């Protein structure tokens, strides 16, 4: 699983669901979680990260992009995250892994990365996942070059459990799997 980086508001008209279209929503630490709409998915698909993080652009991963944009493939695993102003700032995916383990993926809007928001964003996602899915453990995977994200995950209590090669984005990339108790 690819972990996409982290980010916040812009003038993108598709970045927020229309009034009355937000669905079930829950606030966590100033972040609002709701089911990912098609408009949200299309907005996220257009995000572009600066080098070397362009690796996380959805266009770089056709399989991942297909899952994000196809409601049948996306299912109910993806959640939009908005700030208090209603701007789409990121997303989480939550998928069942080993028994008792919830595998998370996340991304923050490119304009909001590198601003010290990652820790609070991650914590809000973990809190949301605990209340909704009641896992015993969390797992995630991240490209080993992404030291910034790895530092955020380590501060949140994640520990590296293995390094592995993963085929994605047209090549073989080294990833680290990280886990922590929920």
Name its key features:
182 residues, alpha+beta, Aminopeptidase, eight-stranded mixed beta sheet, 5 helices, 8 strands, 25% helix, globular, disordered N terminus
Description:
Helix content is 25%, strand content 32%. The chain has 5 helices and 8 strands. An 8-stranded mixed β-sheet has the order 1-2-3-4-5-6-8-7, covered by helices on one side. It has a domain at 25-134: Aminopeptidase, CATH 3.40.630. The protein has 182 residues and is an alpha+beta fold.
The first-to-last residue Cα distance is 19 Å
Please state the second-level CATH architecture of the domain at 25-134: 3-Layer(aba) Sandwich
CA-based gyration radius: 15 Å
DSSP helix fraction: 10-25%
What is the CATH superfamily label of the domain at 25-134? Gcn5-related N-acetyltransferase (GNAT)
Task: Please write out the topology.
Blueprint: E1 25-28, E2 31-35, H1 38-45, H2 62-69, H3 71-74, E3 78-82, E4 88-96, E5 101-108, H4 118-133, E6 137-143, H5 147-155, E7 159-168, E8 171-181
Parallel strand pairs: 5-6
Antiparallel strand pairs: 1-2, 2-3, 3-4, 4-5, 6-8, 7-8
Short description:
By secondary structure, the chain is an alpha+beta fold. It is built from 5 helices and 8 strands.
